[in-house]
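The passage that follows is intended for readers who have already worked through the single-chain material. We present the inputs for a multi-component assembly, then the predicted structure in tokenized form, and finally a short commentary. You are encouraged to pause after the input and sketch how you expect the pieces to fit together before reading on.
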Amino acid sequence: MISQLFILSSKGDHLIYKDFRGEAGNDVINVFYEKVTALPGDQPPVVMVTHRDLHFVHVRQGGLYWVATTTSAGSSPFTIIDFLNRLAALVTDYCGSLSEKSVQMNFALIYELLDEVVDYGYIQTTSSDVLKNFIQTEAVSSRPFSLFDLSNVGLFGAETQQSKVAPSSAATRPIQSSRDQKAELLRWTLRELFSPSVLELTVSCSSVTEMRIGLNEEFSIGRSTLRGYGAAVHVDECRFHQAVKLDEFDDHRILKLCPSQGEQTVMQYQLSDNLPSPPPFRLFPTIERDNRGRLLIYMKLRCDLPPKSAAINVSVSVPVPKGCVSLSQELSSPEQRCELKPQSRSLVWTVPRCSGGTQLSAVFKLDVPGLSSASMLEVGPVGLTFELPKLTSTGLQIRFLRLTPVQPGPSQRWVRYVTHSDSYIIRV
Amino acid sequence: MPYLGSEETVKELRRALSNPNVQSDQLRYRNIVLKVIRAMSQGVDVSSLFSEMVKACATVDIVQKKLVYVFLCSYATVNPELSLLVINTLRKDCQDPNPMVRSLALRNMTNLRLPSLVEYVEQPLMTGLRDRAACVRRVAVLGWAKLYNLQTRSEIDASVVNELYNLLRDPDPVVMVNCLRALEEILKEEGGVAINKPITHHLLNRLKECDIWGQCEVLRILQRHRPQSEDELFDILSLLDVSLVSPHPPVMAATLSLFLGLSSGLPAVSKAAIERVRGPLLAICGSASREMRFAAICHIQLLLCSIPGLMGAHYKRFFCGYAEPSYIKQRKMKVLVELVNDENVAMVLDELKGYCTDVNTDTAQAAITAIGRIGRSYSDKCLEILTGLLGLKQEHIISAVMQTMCDLVWVCPQCSETVCVAVEGCEEMLLDSQGRQALLWLLGMYGEFVSSAPYTLETFIDGVRSEASLGVKMELLTATMRIFLCRPAETQDMLGRLLHYCIEEETNMCVHDQALLYYRLLHCGIEETRKVLQGRRSDPSLGVLIGRPAEPISQWASSFNTLGPLKQNNVEMESTSRKTPELVTFEPKSNTDLRDTLTCEPEENFHSGSDRTTEKTDSCTPVLPSSPGLPLTLSLSPALSPEEFEHMWLEQQPPQSEQGDGMSKEEDYLCLEECLRCPNIFDCSPKSLQAAMQLVNIQMLAFTPPNTLPWRVYLYTHTQQSNSVADTPHSSSVRDVQHTLILGELQYSGKGNKKHAIKGSISDGEVVTKDWDDEREEEEEKVVAYGLRTDRTQDEVKVTLKQHPKDEQVLKGFISILRTLLHTLSSEGV
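Having made your guess, compare it with the prediction:
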């Protein structure tokens, strides 16, 4: 049971406030904001106000606080957190993107959504199929004018290669109400993380009744089952969205589903221990003190991906000793960057692109006043974040994607594979 | 929020709203309304526009209607009279052919929250219940709940309740769930909606039609259902098995909660259910939403209380991610501590060591504490890491290491050597007050082994004037006194200075009084002082707690899937406060923890009868009493519930006339009161007492927290006495064997000064007003207050036993067992 619901910007501005049950005044917003910003760092999702027996449950999405208050301590945290996440996803689906600006511009739409989604503190429905019949307000797109949009227009209006490629902003198109149907659009993302991976699907079309997704024939779940002769695609645990019908899965590895509009996770799977391919990055660090009392860190970063693929947006974060004042670096190419971040006590080395089989090296010299041998211990585990486009670490592929009934109009569909590093840590 | 020119804005909006040109242009009109709502959500007071907005309500544009309703619902309570104007429009809308308009009107009519409008709302709500569109029925059903809460204490029409019960069979699942919600609210005083067998089955059958929110609601309400037969129970459980492994966390959690509630009498079933949710729970731990992950980890902590082995193989899942927020990291470490075993200890410690240098000091300190906890079982490896951390020379790390070492030596005295060496080097480091306290405590306790101890203390004493923390000063006094006892030559001078300062100049009463106490104590002679000050250095009995007994599931089942487990510091996997009484005295915060843990324990013991004893049913420990007699076997089966115990205890209340060491015989039970001498039994923690009792198969059912008087423990056991010596306990069904049930109460009601209390917090503000004439008594009280031990000889525990059926021989045997047990425990304590 939700008593109030509000959305705050990270600076504490009130964006949306709705009181469902009239149990507490709207001054609680400020109480919440004070509590949540009282300490540095993020606060756990449940914050209490003891004197009024009011509980705040909040999630952070898109840089905003999504807060629900409840007066009963017996409320299920899973339900409220899941609901807030779902609400954020709905707002993203309707407004196109999630940011302070898009929420501000679409506040009327969000009030309308909230009105349909929650009544008297009870969650009514969050299905976008049901909601689209009720929601009347049009979304206001907050996307600014961008030069990139012009790149699709060829010289003298000629059609370019690029205009046939779906724009990357396609994914952020808001849900259309059923009245005006535009080009059918399907976006697939096979997003792999190093631990649990998800197969995500964004559907922006409205008239698909059934969709068939073919996965690799060799796809196997668990230890015992082995299929095919080739290199098996193996995962340890796998779960599907409730709308997925699995009657053809056992024989042909085909998932059938009737998607509703919006983004949804079709499949979630995880590997527990042995990765099928070697880890994408190896790091060879050497830490030394030079005779002038500076700390020298040599780093060799080797990318073990297949030669044709590459990692992008690689960022290496190395914890440095406390009190480190300055940094000088030697990097192997000009597009690389390195920065010292005193508040997180780390240096961040960013590499925009790193192709498979290559090796990067860097030297960092740190000035640490009062450097002792113990300070070397503080150069702790190195964290890496990166993105591997067109690659899945399990080797899972989508064989085909079919829609029934066959769409008469122009229908764009594409599948994008990407692997994200969720938490990739290398011990030094 | 201050908003520049808000007066101006409101005026301008009013002008625009009443402009007939605007009113005729739908789009412009809507935009103006939109502006009003925007101003409203930015915090501008636009309530003065109420009448204009009421007019704007009468429109065919649904978007505008919705916007106006948002406005009206926020300001209706401010303008009750004007709100009457809206009612007409709303009632007209309730007859609109468009179901969307009807539901919108109905919903907002009930959202106005004006008691004066109730009479106008009832009739449309009634028709709404029978509307042919489901979306109108949904709104109408909840509307009744709103209406009921609006009219305080008014009787709701019985026909409405009936109607709502009928609507439970509505084809639309949301209407059904809303009916449940509405009935829950309306019938709150009668305990909510009546859940009988047909309703249960109806709800269960329709569970699949509901979306996840509906399912959660139904599962929550079904918790009140009590199946009549075991068959029915298992039918329900097998029906719910699918939802137990649902990919949706809310459904999974609600189902498990229901499982635990229904199968509270069948621990095996609950356990199987928990095993089954392991997969889904671990999956949530890897979900994209970190808040969800946090909720799952907190609940795993709860599950581990009862099934410690649940996640053993998956310990790697609880390694912290690089970018995870600190609240998740800290919880994960608490879970990791529980999962340590011989195989993974090296891995886990290696991982935890990495977190000790975390940027967030709280996380770093939590990691150090976690290492200390593991150190209770694997002390060598952990001490190595802890001493290594001292080399980092960072204030927060050293402070945490000191506190951890304090806790560690209290439990594992074998660590003291390493700790003494470690303490040697870190006195010159700056520490926070907690760290200084811990350092001082260690110096005081192990001063004779730390060569530099007096010199460290001297620096502290020199700086005592600038010392701000009360706890540090108190600890400094005690530590100096203790070192004085073992190294008088080096300490005498500085002790004099310290006492002089504290008695003459210190303004804080607590410090002043304690210094005075020590001063007078020294007058009584060195032996007396030694008796008072040299308490135990460690409490090995806490070692029993390392292999923490699994808590019964029922203890936490009710808090599963509530906000409780997510609260901060709620589920303490262990209470660090159970260290030295001296330290407890100075840490008000941890002391409240202590009290919390202790007061909740009787409850644990209430239930433990059903769970724990089942494992022990066939392993009765034969105990030979020390007195010559027949072999006597104690066993815990059949288990006795607290209610039964209470009933039997009160039934067999002895008549008032019989007191003292007399035995009263009536019909077929025997009542006996005896006094046993066991001076230190009150110092035992309830847990070690319980552990000891369980070794000989005596079950403690309830006990008072240790710092209350009279101190009481209730216990029971079953005795079996076989006449033939060769009989094994398993042949207990042979007729030779005689069974009796013994109920017992241990009571100690010493008055005031006899109690070795673990005194609660002494807050700074507490002004101790004393009668200075009565010095001796005051000193005595102080001894008590500061938790120091004195020797007492006349402490006696009154034991009251009730036996059924009577058998004097057996009862005497039991008393001798109890005596041995209590003596062993109390002598251990000295």
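Commentary: Confidence is low (pLDDT under 50) at residues 147-188 of chain A. Helices of chain A lie at 28-37, 77-95, 100-105, 107-117, 128-131, 147-150, 249-252. How closely did your sketch match?
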